[in-house]
Specification:
- The complex is a heterodimer of chains A (about 180) and B (about 375).
- Chain A is of the alpha/beta class and about 180 residues long.
- Chain A has one domain: Pyruvate-ferredoxin Oxidoreductase, domain 3 (3-Layer(aba) Sandwich).
- Chain A contains six helices and six strands.
- Chain A has a six-stranded mixed sheet with strand order 2-3-1-4-5-6, sandwiched between helices.
- The longest helix of chain A is centred in the C-terminal third of the chain and has 22 residues.
- The model of chain A has no long low-confidence stretch (mean pLDDT about 95).
- With about 375 residues, chain B is of the alpha/beta class.
- Chain B has two domains: about 190 residues, 3-Layer(aba) Sandwich (Rossmann fold), CATH 3.40.50.970; about 120 residues, 3-Layer(aba) Sandwich (Rossmann fold), CATH 3.40.50.
- A seven-stranded mixed sheet of chain B has the order 3-2-4-5-7-6-12, with helices on both faces. Chain B has a five-stranded mixed sheet with strand order 9-11-10-13-14, sandwiched between helices.
- In chain B, helix 3 links the parallel strand 2 and strand 3.
- Chain B is globular.
- In chain B, about 50% of the residues are buried.
- The N terminus of chain B is likely disordered.
- Classes of the chains: A alpha/beta (about 180), B alpha/beta (about 375).
- Chains A and B meet through helix 1 and strand 2 of A and helix 9, strand 8 and helix 11 of B.
């Protein structure tokens, strides 16, 4: 069983961070995992993305052309990755910054205003956590406990920041789960 | 990605024994070197391997080691010459153009029999090229990348864990043979994060009576040198080196065979990241009923011919897949020696081949084989 997800948005939106959190959570669940960032000149001021592959067997290719899921946090990212998803794939869209719906009708789509929801949960900076929550809630690829543990580790001793991040993550999780129920 | 602020936190995290860490390839290579007893790092920055010196600059002082950012790659390799001569476990890392600059010093290391480890995280070339993943240095590395009659073991990891394991091996082999060892990866191995487990730290137990550690009254001076002005003396020295190279060739072949036991129609030959992507393609092709396997080089030199030769008879055709314009395929053709068809397909310039492209290439070759009966 292989799961993979591409996470894309502006540099600074925290896509790399939620990728690492997901990878750590999957690792804690006992799965094989790879985290691969886009790197190079394309990152300067443009779209940044990373791909996380989770597998019950050792991960073959860490490079994914047609992912099973995408988390997109800006317009460029939905334009770039929506067409590449596998049929039936999961598309998690940040409607705070993306003013269009998915074009494809063969995808499972979760739209949510991540920036607004994050602000309500305590900080707009946690929009990435809302998106991660929505993906985990809709896909069920990792255990919620592992993700929450990975989020706590990610923020080290900064308890207040971790609490805000967890609140944002949980809000996203609820909406993601409800969207596919 | 540049500096990873999360990393020190990761390392402090207690996890079930043995500790399993999610680490970037470049940083895992550096940590593995330190745990293998590496005490000195000399290097000059170049993307995509800067996380190795960055990590070393923070960690080496913690273990009583020394990190030096040299003024150039030429300086780094000659600093290695000095530290290695004193018997210290030491290394450098760079990327393709940097290795070209090191080639003179590398030959001196071999000529003087100085053990050390050189990491090459290959990037697109020729020239300044770009910083994207490449395997275009295969021929340069596997022929011994300096001048003169010389060879060096070249190890090619395909995962972060394997990179960790091979770093430790690289130090051991460099001392076993008193010869530099090269570890080659591509930008993907350097940038990717995977879970890794480190073996317990072991200190080198290799005796180094040849090292220039100061002359006690009980022995003659140790001299580290590659200059032999008398032709017959140099010939004798080179023959001694080739006796060593012969032992390396016999004893240090490493390869992985994947799904090659059922008289495969096609065996893909690859190494590093390309081999991993090929595994994804093979899963798809196997589901289509095509018997495809993989021959993955772990030692790029010595070429793992003992394992490869077992495949020549049962396999119908070979396909070398590379992130270069047909370098590995030259060795495959030499090994097959005309007995079976050998084809090449690759991408270059830093383009990473996709598993879909590989599937299409294997299907094309398969159709050709079927048409030929």
């Amino acid at each position: 069983m292989t799961d993979d997800v591409v996470m894309a948005g502006f540099g600074g939106q925290g896509l790399m961070a939620i990728g690492k959190i997901l990878a750590k959570a999957a690792m804690q669940d006992g799965r094989h995992v790879t985290w691969l960032p886009s790197y190079g000149p394309e990152m300067r001021g443009g779209t940044a993305n990373c791909v996380v592959v989770m597998d019950d067997e050792p991960v073959a290719s860490p490079v994914v052309q047609h992912a099973r899921a995408a988390i997109v946090m800006n317009k460029q990212s939905i334009d770039k990755f929506e067409p590449t998803l596998v049929p039936g794939g999961l598309l998690v869209v940040n409607s705070s910054l993306i003013d269009r719906h998915a074009d494809r009708t063969d995808l499972r789509v979760v739209e949510l205003p991540a920036n607004t929801l994050a602000e309500a949960a305590g900080s707009e900076k946690s929009a990435n956590m809302v998106m991660l929550g929505a993906y985990v809630g809709a896909s069920g690829v990792v255990s919620g406990a592992s993700v929450e543990h990975a989020i706590e580790l990610n923020f080290g001793g900064k308890k207040a920041v971790a609490e805000t991040a967890l609140a944002a993550y949980r809000r996203g999780f609820e909406l993601g789960r409800a969207a596919v129920a | 990605m540049g500096y990873d602020a999360n990393l020190p936190v990761d390392q402090a995290v207690p996890s079930p024994a043995p500790e399993r860490l999610l680490m970037k390839g470049a940083e895992a290579i550096a940590e593995a070197a330190i745990r293998a007893g590496c005490k000195n790092f000399f290097g000059y920055p170049i993307t995509p391997q800067n996380e190795i010196p960055e990590y070393m600059s923070a960690r080496l002082p913690e273990v009583g080691g020394t990190f030096v950012q040299a003024e150039s790659e030429v300086a780094s390799i000659n600093m290695l010459y000095g530290a290695g001569s004193a018997g210290v476990r030491c290394m450098t890392s760079s990327s393709s153009p940097g290795l070209s600059l090191m080639s003179e010093g590398f030959s001196y290391l071999i000529g003087s029999e100085v053990p050390t480890v050189v990491v090459n995280i290959m990037r697109g070339g020729p020239g300044l090229g770009n910083i994207a993943p490449s395997q275009g240095d295969y021929l340069q590395m596997t022929r011994g990348f300096g001048h003169g009659d010389q060879k060096a073991i070249v190890l090619a990891p395909a995962s972060v864990q394997e990179a960790v394991d091979l770093m430790s091996l690289a130090f051991d082999l460099s001392e076993k043979y008193r010869n530099p060892v090269v570890v080659i990866g591509d930008g993907l191995i350097g940038q990717m994060m995977e879970p890794v487990t480190f073996a317990p730290t072991v200190q080198s137990t290799t005796e180094k009576p040849w090292a220039t550690t100061g002359k006690p009254p009980t022995r003659k001076r140790n001299i580290i040198n590659s200059l032999y002005l008398d032709a017959e003396t140099l010939e004798k020295h080179v023959l001694h080196l080739f006796e060593k190279f012969g032992r390396m060739e016999a004893e240090e072949q490493r390869a992985e065979l994947y799904l090659t036991d059922d008289q495969p129609e096609i065996v893909i030959c690859a190494f590093g990241t390309t081999a991993r992507i090929a595994k994804s393609a093979i899963k798809v092709l196997r589901a289509q009923g095509i018997r495809v396997g993989l021959f993955r080089l772990i030692s790029a030199w010595p070429f793992p011919q003992q394992a490869f030769q077992t495949l020549v008879e049962p396999t119908s055709a070979f396909l070398s897949i590379e992130m270069s314009m047909g370098q590995l395929v030259q060795d495959i053709r030499t090994q097959v020696a005309g007995r079976k068809p050998v084809e090449f397909w690759g991408r270059t310039g830093g383009v990473v081949p996709t598993s879909e492209e590989m599937v299409a290439q294997v299907q094309k070759l398969h159709h050709k084989l079927v048409a030929q009966g």
